[in-house]
Write a structure and sequence with these properties.
By secondary structure, the chain is an alpha/beta fold. 46% of the residues lie in helices and 14% in strands. The chain folds into two domains: 8-52 and 95-262 and 464-476, 3-Layer(aba) Sandwich (Rossmann fold), CATH 3.40.50.11720; 272-461, 3-Layer(aba) Sandwich (Rossmann fold).
Length: 486
C-alpha cells in the first residue's frame, strides 16, 4: 500500500475547532448530563477511563514511519543509521505476536451492534489467539452488545478529545481497531495512526445526507478516510460517495452488508399463536402488518385499510411504530380516524369506535417478528416518510410478500433487488396501497411466490461477513500470523 505522510496540520486544526466548540457547548453538555441518564451512564469511560487491559501492543517490524513527510524522513536518517549499527534486539515471532493480539471492535448503536452478530464470532475464529473487546457509543448499543457477546468486555467509546482518545488507547493497547459502519471521529483516526495502531472500517455505509455534510469539510474528511488501513463498504454506491470525498481507491472494497448474514429463515416465530389469541385475531381473518412505521404514515395506512375493507371486510390492520414515543400519538390518530384501537400493552381495553374490529397497535418492544409471522402482507414502515425505509429482511425471512413506499434509500441495493425478483412492490399513496392489498388478498398463490422470492433474494445477498473477515486478514497479514482456512 502506498504510504501517505501524516499532516500534523489537520490534527492541530481539529483540536482548535473542538476547543472553540467547547467554549460554547460545555453548558449544553452539563445540562444533558444533569437531565439525561444515558449521558451519565459510566461517564468515566467516555472520558477515556475505559477498562485497563494487560500486555503491551505487539511490536511491529521495522518500517518507515508513514506519519513523517519526506523532509522529516531525511532529517531522521542519521538517527536511523546509528540505530542500525547497534546490537539488534531479538524480535518476537509472528506466533508470539498473535498470542498477544487484542482487537478492539467498535459499533455505534443497536443497528451497528447487530452487524457484529456474525462478525465477532467469525473474527474470533480467524484470530483464535486474539482477545476481542467491544465498545459502543450509545447505552442501548452497549446493552445489546453485552447480550449478543456475553463474556466479552464492553465499554463506551471515548469522546473525540485528544486526551480522552490517548488515554483510551493507552488503557486498551489494541493491536488493531475495527470500526463497524464507522464513526469518522478525526482525533481517534489521526492519533491511532500516529501511534501505529491500524484502524479498519467494515460494513461502511454513507448516506446522501452524510456525504453532503462531509463535503463541506472535504479536505479534513479525506485525511480521515485515508488514515485507515482499509475500508469495506456495503455497496458500490457508498464506494462512489467515498471516492468523491477523496478516499484512496486502494483502501476501498465492496464487501456487502453483514446484517444479512444474521438472518435466520423460519416459517413461524415462538409466541405467535399466543399473540394471535390474546389480540383476538380470528381464523379466516387476513392481517396487514405495518412494521417500524414513522409518525404520519398511519394516516395513509388507515385510509388504505378502510378502502381495502370494502372488498375484504375481514381484513385486520396492525401498526407497529418504530419508536416508543410515537405510541400515544398513533393511538390518538387511529381513534381520530374513526377506528377503534386495541393496544398490545392493554389488551383488555378497546378505545374508539365499536362498529368495526379494532386496529391493533403494537406498543411493546421486542415483538415485531411475532407480528410479522402473523401477517398475510407486510408494509415496510418509514418508506412513505423521507426516512429511507425500515429493514425488509426480517419479514422477508418469514417469506412474507412486501409492500413499501417510494423512499427506501437506506437499502440502495436491497430494495431494487427485492422488486426485480418479484418479492416486493412499491406503492406511492393510499390508493396504490389499497389496490395492492386487494390484489394480493385476491391471489394467494401470488403472495406465496412473493414470499419465496424474498427468501431467495436474501440468500443471494449473504456472505458479507466472510468477505469482511478476509479483508481484515489481508490487511493485518503483513504483520501478524492469522489462521487461514484449509
Amino acid at each position: 500500500m502506498k504510504r501517505r505522510p501524516y499532516n500534523l496540520v489537520w490534527l492541530l486544526a481539529v483540536n482548535v475547532a473542538y476547543g472553540l466548540a467547547a467554549l460554547v457547548g460545555w453548558i449544553v453538555y452539563l445540562v444533558l448530563l444533569a437531565t439525561r441518564r444515558k449521558y451519565r451512564n459510566r461517564l468515566w469511560e467516555r472520558w477515556g477511563f475505559v477498562p485497563k487491559f494487560g500486555g503491551r501492543q505487539p511490536p511491529k517490524p521495522a518500517a518507515a514511519n508513514p506519519w513523517l513527510s519526506d523532509a522529516e524522513q531525511a532529517s531522521s536518517a542519521s538517527a536511523q543509521s546509528a540505530a542500525a549499527h547497534a546490537p539488534a534486539a531479538p524480535q518476537p515471532s509472528k506466533a508470539a505476536r498473535a498470542k498477544a493480539m487484542r482487537l478492539w471492535v467498535h459499533a455505534i448503536s443497536v443497528g451497528e451492534v447487530e452487524a457484529t452478530r456474525t462478525f465477532v464470532p467469525a473474527l474470533a475464529e480467524a484470530f483464535p489467539q486474539a482477545e476481542i473487546v467491544l465498545s459502543t457509543t450509545t447505552l442501548t448499543g452497549r446493552q445489546r452488545a453485552m447480550k449478543l457477546h456475553p463474556g466479552r468486555p464492553v465499554f463506551y467509546f471515548p469522546l473525540d478529545f485528544g486526551p480522552c482518545v490517548l488515554l483510551a488507547l493507552a488503557r486498551v493497547r489494541p493491536t488493531a481497531v475495527i470500526q463497524v459502519e464507522s464513526e469518522w471521529w478525526p482525533n481517534f483516526f489521526f492519533l491511532a495512526r500516529l501511534l501505529g495502531v491500524p484502524v479498519l472500517a467494515v460494513n461502511v455505509r454513507l448516506t446522501e445526507r452524510g456525504a453532503r455534510g462531509y463535503d463541506r469539510i472535504r479536505r479534513c474528511m479525506r485525511a480521515v478516510f485515508n488514515s485507515t488501513r482499509a475500508i469495506g463498504v456495503q455497496s458500490e454506491l457508498y464506494r462512489d460517495r467515498l471516492l468523491k470525498l477523496g478516499a484512496d481507491p486502494a483502501l476501498l472494497r465492496v464487501t456487502g452488508q453483514m446484517k444479512h448474514d444474521g438472518v435466520a429463515f423460519a416459517d413461524t416465530v415462538p409466541g405467535t399463536d399466543e399473540l394471535r389469541r390474546e389480540m383476538q385475531i380470528e381464523d379466516g381473518e387476513s392481517v396487514l402488518v405495518a412494521g417500524s412505521t414513522a409518525p404520519g404514515e398511519e394516516e395513509t395506512l388507515l385510509a388504505a385499510y378502510r378502502e381495502a375493507r370494502r372488498v375484504f371486510p375481514r381484513l385486520r390492520l396492525v401498526i407497529v411504530p418504530r419508536r416508543p414515543e410515537s405510541f400515544e400519538a398513533v393511538a390518538g390518530a387511529i381513534v381520530k380516524a374513526g377506528c377503534g384501537v386495541v393496544r398490545r400493552s392493554r389488551t383488555v381495553e378497546w378505545q374508539g369506535s365499536k362498529l368495526l374490529p379494532p386496529v391493533l397497535l403494537g406498543d411493546t418492544m421486542g415483538e415485531l417478528m411475532k407480528w410479522y409471522a402473523i401477517a398475510d402482507i407486510v408494509f415496510i414502515g418509514r418508506s412513505l416518510a423521507p426516512l429511507g425505509g425500515s429493514n425488509p429482511m426480517e419479514p422477508g425471512s418469514l417469506a412474507k410478500p412486501l409492500l413499501w413506499g417510494p423512499r427506501m434509500f437506506n437499502f440502495p441495493d436491497e430494495a431494487p433487488a427485492f422488486v426485480a425478483a418479484g418479492a416486493a412492490r412499491e406503492v406511492l399513496n393510499q390508493y396504490d396501497l389499497a389496490a395492492a392489498v386487494v390484489e394480493l388478498l385476491t391471489r394467494p398463490e401470488r403472495r406465496r411466490q412473493m414470499g419465496l422470492a424474498a427468501r431467495e433474494t436474501i440468500r443471494g445477498m449473504q456472505g458479507a461477513t466472510a468477505r469482511s473477515i478476509a479483508l481484515v486478514r489481508e490487511t493485518l497479514a503483513d504483520v501478524y500470523e492469522v489462521r487461514t482456512r484449509s
